[in-house]
Design brief:
By secondary structure, the protein is mostly helical. Strands 1-2 form a two-stranded antiparallel sheet.
Amino acid sequence: MRPCEHSGCALAGEYRAPMDRQRLNQYRWFCLEHIREFNRAWDYYKGMGPAEIEGHLRQDAGWQRPTWPLGRLGGQNPFAQEWTKDPLGLLHATRLHGARRRAPQPGAPEAPPGELRAALDLLELPWPLDAAALRARYKDLAKRYHPDANGGDRAAEEKLKDINRAYSLLRRRVPSAARAAAGGAD
């Protein structure tokens, strides 16, 4: 058994405490009474300025590891043709393997932009979008989920907020020709 490192204590040091902020993996050993005393007095940020504290908090958000914006790791694409063996040509046509995007087939329905899919699903609208259909669907859903029509139900209020955000996003993306044909601005 280790003795308690507090001066004059003869009890066993069963509980560990870090040496200091720079040596968190090196420990001192205390008995229960003295570890409690140590914990009450411990302040990791003692002596640091606001900028240093902010820097430590930012590092803690990523567990003290370097981070990069999504999609910018700076390394080689592990699926690039020169890095993968594909003797049967199975990966050749995939987007991950360096193939170019294919042109849409004539007569095939146009796919909605990725950032609009969730809004279209929420409002249950098809793509391409028609301004009149968008406005009619919004009015129908706004009447259905308005808090006054639902006795102040919080779930209906949250649903209406989502509907408003989706409508606002889609309204900006409706083609101007369709908007003019539908009667101008909302």
